[in-house]
């Protein structure tokens, strides 16, 4: 199929990463087309649960040409983020097409073009492409033995909207990431009981240190050896959070850098979770072993070492909320063999290129301690400059 409308650059995704990339590409003199699978710009945050706020703080969350106003407070709310995102296209002077769910991204080597095909058959061609689909594209719910026999509801944390929806319920939250912890804590106000099931003890860190967001420490130590940063974070957890072993949350046995490489889970920064655990409003148990009807069999405690084992206990929840992460889906979406690792994460990021996929870039896949939004802002500028240079050189060669 031929398409006379060949774009200089297409950005897939209109979340913070895609909008930032499009803004910088426009500043570089290009005319990006942004394709977004949801009905409206800002939906990626508009659909988050009630009460969610940025953990990175107002100052460290600025995007290209988009600072949060002082009125947003120290920790901008969901509504403040949505307002910033939905005005991006008009402020940046670029176009977003919504309701475009991408099925395949192929490189046409003979024509040296990228071909993008949507699930409903729409067809786009571009000289370069920026994948801004994020790392939370496909929710994962584990296949627990016997889960089909569970009579209650099993849902992913990405579907969670309001704790009020679970009034009077006994809720089992799976996972020890920041979202799972915050959801569990919010549920304590309405649910009859809240239990958190995890495989390994999480890192729990203060959201701010004497008024400075933890992200500031991450920016300060960005280029430091991981072993040094790990020791700093362990010190912060021990001195500012304290020992929660008596409540089922011992200190993690692995350094944070290694634990993140394994499970890609960020530390818990939601302090009310710690208070709720100490007060007994949240019970901590180990991972699910099997489900038989309404009965869920879990280990009594989380593993503190690879060979540790614990006795089984049983729970009878009404609802299971799986805060068990996501897959990117990149290996199926982008037809470039070898571009992802065994966890489906891209081997390149920012302005890096893959040898068999020229002018293909990924943004928003790295979530360092220095903050995802800050990383996006830096990546967007580098990617725009790289694409501008490449297209200019190609045009000069063909002149």
From TrEMBL:
GO molecular function terms listed in the Swiss-Prot or TrEMBL record: flavin adenine dinucleotide binding; monooxygenase activity
Q: Does the keyword rRNA processing apply?
A: no
Give the matching Pfam families.
Pyr_redox_3 (PF13738)
Entry keywords, A to Z: Oxidoreductase
The keyword Oxidoreductase appears for this protein? yes
Domain of life, per UniProt, equals Bacteria
The name of this protein is Putative flavoprotein involved in K+ transport
Which organism does this record belong to?
A: Nitrosomonas ureae
Q: Output the lineage of the source organism.
A: Bacteria, Pseudomonadati, Pseudomonadota, Betaproteobacteria, Nitrosomonadales
């Amino acid at each position: 199929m031929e398409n006379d409308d060949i774009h200089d650059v297409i950005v897939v995704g209109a979340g913070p990463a895609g909008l930032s990339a499009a803004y910088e590409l426009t500043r570089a003199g290009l005319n990006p087309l942004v394709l977004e699978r949801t009905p409206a710009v800002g939906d990626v945050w508009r659909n988050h649960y009630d009460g969610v706020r940025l953990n990175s703080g107002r100052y460290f969350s600025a995007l290209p040409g988009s600072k949060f106003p002082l009125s947003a407070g120290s920790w901008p709310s969901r509504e403040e983020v949505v307002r910033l995102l939905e005005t991006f296209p008009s402020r940046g002077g670029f176009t977003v097409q919504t309701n475009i769910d991408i099925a395949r991204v192929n490189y046409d080597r003979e024509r040296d073009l990228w071909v993008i095909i949507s699930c409903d058959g729409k067809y786009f061609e571009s000289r370069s492409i920026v994948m801004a689909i994020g790392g939370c594209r496909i929710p994962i719910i584990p296949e627990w033995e016997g889960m089909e026999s569970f009579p209650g509801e099993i849902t992913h944390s990405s579907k969670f909207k309001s704790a009020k929806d679970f009034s009077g319920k006994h809720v089992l939250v799976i996972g020890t990431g920041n979202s799972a912890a915050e959801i569990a804590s919010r549920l304590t106000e309405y649910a009859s009981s809240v239990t958190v099931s995890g495989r390994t003890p999480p890192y729990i860190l203060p959201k701010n240190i004497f008024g400075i967001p933890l992200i500031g420490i991450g920016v300060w130590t960005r280029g430091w050896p991981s072993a040094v940063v790990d020791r700093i974070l362990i010190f912060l957890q021990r001195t500012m959070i304290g020992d929660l072993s008596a409540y089922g949350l011992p200190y993690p046995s692995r350094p944070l850098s290694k634990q993140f490489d394994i499970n890609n889970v960020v530390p818990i920064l939601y302090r009310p979770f710690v208070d709720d655990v100490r007060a007994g409003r949240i019970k901590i148990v180990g991972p699910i072993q099997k489900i038989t009807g309404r009965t869920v069999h879990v280990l009594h405690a989380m593993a503190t070492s690879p060979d540790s084992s614990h006795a089984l206990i049983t729970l009878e929840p009404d609802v299971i909320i799986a805060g068990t992460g996501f897959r990117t889906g990149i290996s199926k979406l982008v037809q470039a063999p070898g571009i992802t690792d065994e966890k489906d994460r891209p081997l390149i990021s920012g302005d890096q290129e893959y040898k068999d996929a020229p002018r293909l870039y990924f943004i928003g896949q790295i979530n360092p301690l220095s903050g995802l939004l800050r990383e996006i802002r830096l990546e967007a500028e580098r990617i725009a400059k790289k694409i501008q240079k490449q297209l200019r050189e190609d045009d000069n060669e063909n002149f």
